[in-house]
Amino acid sequence: MNAAAIMTTPVVTVTEDTPVRDIVTLLLSRGISGVPVLNDAGRMTGLLSEGDLLRRAELGTQKQRGAWLAFFTGTATLANDYVRSHGEVARDIMTRAVITVAPGTTLAEIADVMEEKRVKRVPVLDGGALVGIVSRSNLLRSLASTAPASPAGATADDAAIRAALIAELSRQAWSRRADNSVVVSDGVVHLWGLVTTREEQRALELAAKAITGVHTVQSHMIVLSEEPYPLFPGALMV
Q1: What is the CATH number of domain 3-49+95-226?
Q2: Helix (H) or strand (E) holding 209
Q3: What integer pLDDT is reported at residue 91 of this predicted model?
Q4: How far apart are alpha carbons 13 and 151 in whole angstroms?
């Protein structure tokens, strides 16, 4: 199984000029903890996560250095710290050195990268274009969706089923595709993520069942209307 088989797509993104406060609202409303940043040409230039928002002047959490330590710290570093704590738009505070993978990158390779680089998510680029994102949650969902007796790796039929379902959902106005994940294992469709109502969940199940080759549909969805405290930031997509 590879990145293309489990990645979240389409990806929630922001632009380099998106205000920091709008990004905070977006992260909280979507229950996610990071977003890729795109330039005017639609190319990814950075990644902005909760970690980039920890050192903020509004919170009084900006880095504090004593006079002696500041004396030995380069002015470039001091200026960068100031921009990150006072920056107004995404380009001011985003992480620019982003680790990425290709659609064909195996899950084992992705896990190695996440562990070695200590990152929680990796954007998926195809020819330089952002086509998806794989987070730790995607890996866990894939693990939970794999039958113990099944051979490792998704079959061509599984990939075709997933592609057909995502294409169908893209045509439906009720589908919250950016908040949901689809994993297919041996013809079994696993639905993960958020739905507003039971009706939306049922619509997803029916759409999946209608795809040729699907044996069973298993829903792991959280129904927001039935959860008194449904989410905390980053609970589902890390």
Answers
A1: 3.10.580.10
A2: helix 198-209
A3: 93
A4: 35
